Amino acid sequence: MKNKRKALFLLLFFVSFVSITYAVDPPPIDAGGPGGGATPLGGSAPIDGGYIISIILALSYGISIYLKKIIHLRFSNHEE
Q1: With 90 as the cut, is the pLDDT of residue 54 above it?
Q2: pLDDT tens for residues 27-44?
Q3: Residue 34, domain member (yes or no)
Q4: Distance CA 53, CA 79 (A)
Q5: Which H or E run contains 47?
Q6: 70: containing domain
Q7: Domain tally for the chain?
Q8: How far apart are alpha carbons 60 and 13 in whole angstroms?
Q9: Terminus-to-terminus CA distance in the chain, angstroms?
């Protein structure tokens, strides 16, 4: 029963935390910035190098899980 209470408390805590953090007004979008155009919604946040690191990390994680399963299968088949 205590485990269910702890899980429910954590769930309510995280849901309330997320709802509180998103309860603010969004920042205003500049209509007339320098250069005559509107500022893009994301601003000028660079995303050129981050996705390459994410892809490399995801591939390495997937390969490690795959190799662990293959090694486990090889050792478990020879235990007769």
Answers
A1: no
A2: 666 555 555 556 566 666
A3: no
A4: 40
A5: none
A6: 50-80
A7: 1
A8: 33
A9: 42
